[in-house]
Specification:
alpha+beta; Endonuclease, Chain A; 3 domains; 15-stranded mixed sheet; 43% helix; 18% strand
Length: 474
């Protein structure tokens, strides 16, 4: 009796899920992956598809007033654009990239910025806390992960002092990534006067629409004078070796100049969406910037409510601009077929491409899925380096004058499902410095050769093939 009931539920749920895939599916390769998940995981596969696979761009969730709050505010371009807007008249490829990002993110390249590249967690948090101590008006904080530990305790103590000095503190965080902040840890911040809100909290009534769409951004704004962004979360993994992977490496940015407004506007939109306060006015916190340096830079932001896959199109746009080299560093290099085909085309055109990834990973599923693409990349001449330490960096360097640093991974989640923020830097000096650091790491890393890689065990090949089909869930 139980077997018959199970069979009926399995067949009906599978028919429903596969029908939904056929009707709503956007890409055949991803649809096939989901069909295999549904068949190999009875009932559970259909549930997973319902939670993580359905194309909800076509559903009411993306048309509700709550979701449209993100687009309520747009900082006026007029004077600031006339003063700091960049047009790459002598470089048509850069100008095309600039226009692509403007069409997707509503942000243009800005001149007059000063950018400091922070190479690890220790350097980042030393600079961040020092800058927070100097805040006079407000500190706005947004992270995917706020994890309990020494860093979060230090942040709490610092904020308590600053609030007593009259500084406004606002925090927004991803409710899944920062699950440790629920309950008493969050109340500690509330009790000292911090305005703190989760983004898309996971509740039963909105579970089906919010669980799969996470806010992966890391942004700090201080007095609207300077900003921090990149790949580093608030976690002791970045400053100590408590993790099984040792101390995590990552790259972050400190920014000053006109670009701060573009990053700040992302935070303010997300904050307005999270706090649901109709009396919150962003104009109080945004004002025109002055020139702080000579770097041209552009903010790239995207999410599941974007009309196009912004982060993927940014990376492909950068690749198409390449004249001689592309360097990528990422721990979760599990892109879809569109990006992979674009990368292989550029490699076959003779562009020198290298991929730097950690040998160890905090996600075995992501590691096996990533390794499953290595053979086809090696066949077109992509150099693959395995570093011994764990790096969480999301970096792309094209030639030696175009650098992207931010929160966007090279995977389906960052391309389609997460809210992300990158900074695209058009600068020869920073580009050359990043190339130098990248090559230093590659010299110590293990170069993967085709012959050596083909000799891996049958079991490893099987796991790679298996997790390749589960890419939509990774």
């Amino acid at each position: 009796m139980l077997n018959t009931a199970f069979t009926i539920v399995y067949v009906l749920s599978s028919i429903w899920a596969i029908g939904a895939i056929v009707y709503h599916g956007r890409r055949p390769s991803r649809s096939v992956s989901w069909v295999l998940v549904i068949i190999t995981l009875p009932i559970l596969g259909a549930v997973l598809y319902y939670l993580f696979g359905m194309n909800r761009r076509k559903f009411k969730f993306f048309n509700t007033k709550e979701f449209e709050k993100r687009n309520k505010y747009t900082y006026p371009k007029n004077s600031i654009q006339e003063k700091f807007g960049v047009h790459f008249e002598t470089d048509t490829q850069k100008e095309k990239l600039n226009r692509l990002i403007e069409a997707n993110s509503n942000t243009t390249a800005k001149s007059g910025n000063h950018i400091t590249v922070l190479q690890d967690g220790g350097e980042t948090f030393n600079m961040l806390f020092k800058s927070m101590e100097e805040a006079q008006k407000f500190i706005h904080v947004q992270y995917y992960i706020l994890e309990q530990g020494d860093l979060l305790d230090k942040m709490l103590e610092l904020f308590e002092r600053k609030i007593k000095q009259g500084v406004e503190i606002r925090i927004i965080y991803d409710s899944l990534g920062s699950y440790q902040l629920r309950g008493r840890p969050r109340k500690k911040f509330q009790n000292i006067g911090v305005k703190i809100y989760p983004i898309m909290p996971i509740r039963l009534k909105n579970l089906l629409f919010s669980l799969n769409f996470r806010n992966h951004r890391k942004i700090v704004i201080i007095d609207n004078k300077l900003a921090f962004t990149g790949g580093i979360n608030v976690s002791d993994k970045y400053i100590s070796r408590k993790s099984g992977l040792g101390k995590w490496k990552d790259i972050h940015l400190k920014l000053e100049g006109p670009i701060v407004n573009d990053l700040h506007l992302i935070f303010l939109k997300d904050y307005y969406f999270a706090c649901r306060n109709t009396d919150f006015h962003v104009s109080k916190y945004l004002f025109e910037q002055e020139k702080k340096g000579s770097v041209n830079a552009q903010v790239v932001s995207g999410g599941p409510d974007s009309k196009h896959p912004t982060i993927m199109q940014q990376y492909i746009g950068m690749m198409n601009k390449a004249k001689h080299s592309i360097r990528i560093a990422n721990p979760y290099f599990v892109p879809g077929d569109t990006f992979l085909q674009s990368l292989k085309i550029v490699a076959l055109e003779g562009i020198d491409i290298s991929l730097l990834v950690p040998k160890k990973s905090d996600s075995k599923a992501a590691k096996f899925a990533m390794f499953s693409h290595f053979e086809e990349l090696l066949q077109v001449g992509v150099k693959i380096y395995l570093r011994e330490d764990f790096s969480h960096s999301k970096v792309m360097i094209v030639d030696d004058d175009l650098v992207s640093i931010g929160s966007g991974n090279f995977d389906i989640r960052s391309f389609e499902l997460n809210y992300e923020a990158n900074v695209l830097i058009y600068d020869q000096k920073i580009g050359s410095e990043m190339v130098h650091e990248y090559e230093k790491i590659c010299e110590k890393a293990n170069l993967v050769t085709t012959q050596r890689f083909q000799n891996r065990t049958i079991w490893q090949k099987f796991l790679e093939g298996l997790f390749k089909f589960f890419k939509p869930l990774i």
